[in-house]
Amino acid sequence: MLKHHRRGLPRRSDLRKAARRREASVAFAIFALCVVMAAVRPAYFALDNLNDLFLASLPVLVVAAGMTVVMLTGEIDISVGSIFAVCGVVAGMLAKAGLPLLVDVGVVCVLGASFGALSGSLVAYLKLPSIVVTLAMMIALRDGLRWSTQGAWVQDLPAYFQWFGLSQSAFPLVAGLVAAMVFAGLSWGLRYTGAGRLLYLTGSNAEAARLAGVDTSQVKIAAFACLGALTALAAILNSVRF
After folding, report:
1. Cα gap 116→220, rounded to integer Å
2. Residue 14 has what pLDDT?
3. How far from 92 is each of 51, 113, 225, 233, 239, CA to CA, in Å?
4. Alpha-carbon torsion (137, 69, 57, 40), positive or negative
5. Counting beta carbons within 10 angstroms of the beta carbon of residue 75, is it exposed (0 to 12), middle (13 to 18) or buried (19 or more)?
6. Hey, where are the domains in the chain?
7. Consecutive 10-residue averages of pLDDT for the chain (242 residues)
8. What CA–CA distance (Å, rounded) separates 131 from 119?
9. Which pLDDT does position 5 carry in this prediction?
10. Cβ neighbours, 10 Å, residue 101
11. Hey, how many other C-beta atoms are within 10 angstroms of the C-beta on 140?
């Protein structure tokens, strides 16, 4: 009878235990940092400051979820900061033009997805390194935004856009729910759907995936487009606070 576990290879359970230990060490480090902050700056844990930190962290969570999708394909996108800025400005300008909130959100998410799909197409079809492509995208969008706005803020936003038309006490609940739905939806999709498995397969061995009939180019383009759309959503969550 053949043994399923070869000598010298780590068991899956051992790998999971090691991962838990790493996660526990990170959690302990964060806890220790919080203790130090509480001792040095007690005002850091004031309710208003915690609320600001919570709202500032939500866009980061949404972008990080999208970045996970791209990284699973073995690529990286460093243009998210510029996409974030452009989408935030466009969202504000569309709101000032009088577009309904849902239409504004939809248009901006499509814009972000288009930026991502463009980067993904250059990576997938021209075989260019993703870091080079997204570096060029970052510079182009950043300089284009600076030229078009001359560094000016988008001001006098309509009331229905600011805080999504909600009170400042209700907005954190809605924004937190949106971010949680994105995080939970992607976590479930990556684990239990065929699309999620294609991402893992493409990232682990693109050539084997291609020989198995997977269109790895389309997978990468979809991953970049997903990140672009989520970056746009994060930009809206950030823009409505100001």
Report:
1. 10
2. 62
3. 23, 18, 22, 13, 7
4. negative
5. buried
6. 58-239
7. 48 61 82 89 86 93 97 97 96 93 96 98 96 97 93 86 87 94 95 94 93 95 98 96 84
8. 10
9. 46
10. 17
11. 13
Tokens found for residue 236: 């809206």
User: Virtual CA dihedral for 94, 99, 101, 105, nearest 10 degrees?
Assistant: -50
Amino acid (1-letter code) at residue 183: F
CA 181 to chain centre: 13
Contact 84, 234 (CB under 8 A): yes
Q: Which two tokens stand for residue 137?
A: 């995208």
Give the C-alpha separation, 2 to 148, whole Å.
Answer: 68
Return the DSSP state at 3: -
54 is written with which tokens? 């919570």
Indicate the burial class of 82 (C-beta count within 10 angstroms; 0-12, 13-18, 19 or more): buried
Buried b (16+ CB within 10 A) or exposed e, 39-53: eeeeeeeeeeeeeee
Identify the pLDDT of residue 138.
Answer: 97
